[in-house]
Amino acid sequence: MDGLFLSLPFADDCAMIPLSDPVLHVDGLTKSFGPVAAVGGISFDARRGETVGLLGGNGAGKTTTLSMLLGLVRPTSGTIRILGAQMPRERHLALPHMNFESPYVDLPKRLTVRQNLEVYGRLYGVRQVRKRAEEIAEELELSDLLNRPAGMLSAGQKTRVGLAKALINRPQLLLLDEPTASLDPDTADWVRHYFEDYRKQHNATILLASHNMSEVERLCDNVLMMRQGLIVDRGAPGALIEKYGRASMEEVFLDVARGTGRWGELQEERGPEVQEQIAGEGLPL
Amino acid sequence: MSVGTDDIVKSPLPLGGNALTRIWAMVLRYWYLTRSSGPRILELAYWPTVQMSIWGFIQTFLAQQSSYFAQALGVLLGAVMLWDVLLRGQLGLSITFFEEVWSRNLGHLMVSPLRPIELIAALMTTSLIKTLIGLVPTSFLAMWFFGFNIYGIGLALVAFFFNLILFGWGVGLIVSGLVLRYGQGAESLAWALTFALAPLCGVYYPVSVLPEFLQVFSYVLPPAYIFEGMRNIVVEHRLDMSLLIKASLLNVTLISGAAALFYRFLRSAEVRGTLLQIGE
User: Rounded CA gap, B166 and B158, in Å?
Assistant: First the structure.
């Protein structure tokens, strides 16, 4: 039976989850800020080794959803289970095994790259943290920058340092919020390539919120399309492109965001009953 | 997707964190920050030294004019140095917390395995280190310039020190919690709140000189008992243990309440979704 379970090596806690269970399980998740429903009841799973894209226009609820998964925002209702741990109650069980990267959240600017990695490595309980910091810096081609203050880096370098911080604990679940925003095409391509390799090497699960549709097409196994706080459609990028009769995810995105094209037709075909199902659980993959 | 047993071989990095390693990580983070700037280190001792010098000269002058101050050598210097324990302790905690707000790093910390109680412990440890860096040199300068040896208070100094810094931490936690709840607009309270309480704490004079209705407020403030106790030792050379016990009991209540308030404001920031916005 041992082979069916993944042992999570916590120092002060120990959890076992069946390998077949989803790494991330979200059920009926809602968040309201006063009268405004930012997330209106979403459900989805992400399995081991899968990259799931979270797509939607501004205000669709992507960042609120990511923030709830990370424990930065308390859900109004619903269930989040990460690596078998019930969030936010059992967050201490899951947090050492997940991590997060966003170009919109800074690392301390006065600390050097090495100091930042060392501090975060220790927070995540990484053993031989200095060695690990050097190892991840080498992987991300940051070795020459280790002794430079984080505040003195270019946008591309900052993104790579943020990524190094996000990978310092070699997470099983990686949450990425527009990880290649503000990067030049060459660096962005390099970063995407790194994500692909990381997922393959470590069988990690990635949840990616992005506005870059070519990135989504390239990286994601499945995509959750969000609009007004709901998952309004979901599926593999290729399947969605085919379903909407479009040439790219960019065009599918525009149809959903504007309520035009095949999206509008699908809404009519679905009728109110199916639309209600979409609002509650989203469509099946 | 199907998952084989090979995945176990590629299982994650062995992790070995516990509360102490996380607290140490944060103390290290603040130490790196402090040592990255010479002026920051200098500032830790600068204001206590300036304060000590001013009050040292005032005391020298008063000792020439008044038999009370001539007999009670060091009563003002002792008061100002103990007051700085409270003030530096409070600022050491609040400003260290603000550093996370200013650097917009709270988001990263709150999604790490660091627990709020561990963050509080790290802030307190850092505050203790900063207070000692600021005040130990000042205490030796007071010996050198004014012949006042604060260590002459004896073991009671340790009790005074911890009671005052505990009170400072309590105020610091309340201020930090208010910043979590109301945003950076509440930062000015870090300086204002402690100074607003100073007249009631009887730092330089006995609480009995205050109007009666103010004395009621003084006696719920632990520092009022500590400064009273300090004057007892310096002037009358006796230690009143009942004052220490009252101060300690009040401090335990205060620090528990302050930690609960900080925790409540943190949860409130999670509910309102403002943790990522604080500092913008």
Answer: 12
* ipTM of the complex as predicted: 0.84
To the nearest whole angstrom, how far is the Cα of A109 from the nearest Cα of chain B? 7
Take residue B133 and report the two structure tokens written for it: 């860096």
B1-34: b or e for each residue (b if 16 or more CB lie within 10 Å)?
Answer: eebeeebbeeebbebebeeebbbbbbbbbbebbb
Is the Cβ–Cβ distance between A257 and A244 less than 8 Å?
A: no
Instruction: With beta carbons less than 8 A apart as the criterion, state whether A30 and A41 touch.
Output: yes
* Three-class SS state of B10: coil
Provide the edge-to-edge strand list for the sheet that holds A98-101. A98-101, A173-177, A205-209, A51-55, A222-227, A230-235
- Predicted confidence (pLDDT) per residue in A165-192, tens digit: 999 999 999 999 988 887 888 888 988 9
Residues facing A191 on adjacent strands: none
Contact (Cβ atoms closer than 8 angstroms) between residue A129 and residue A118: yes
- Distance between B51 CA and the closest CA of chain A, angstroms: 30
Asked which of A2-11, A22-31, B41-50, B216-225 is least confident by mean pLDDT, the reply is A2-11
Nearest to A7 by CA among B15, B137, B18, B87: B15
Token pair in block for residue A140:
């991300």
Touching B: A residues 99-138, CB under 8 Å: 99-100, 102, 104-112, 115, 118-127, 132
How many of the other CB atoms lie within 10 Å of CB of B241?
10
Residues constituting chain B: 280
pLDDT tens, position by position, A113-146: 999 999 999 999 998 899 999 999 998 989 999 9
Opening angle at CA B47, ends B42 and B53, nearest 5:
115
Q: Residue A152 in contact with residue A38, Cβ under 8 Å?
A: no
DSSP A112: B
Residues of chain B in contact with residue A110, where contact means CB-CB under 8 angstroms, are 32-33, 36-37, 103
Specify whether the CB–CB gap between B45 and B133 falls below 8 A. Answer: yes
The residues, ordered by sequence, that sit 6+ positions from A129 with a Cβ below 8 Å of its Cβ are: A117, A118, A121, A122
3-state secondary structure (DSSP) of residue A127? coil
Secondary structure of A50-89 as H, E, C letters: CEEEEECCCCCCHHHHHHHHHCCCCCCEEEEEECCEEECC
**Closest approach of B127 to chain A, Cα-based (Å):** 18
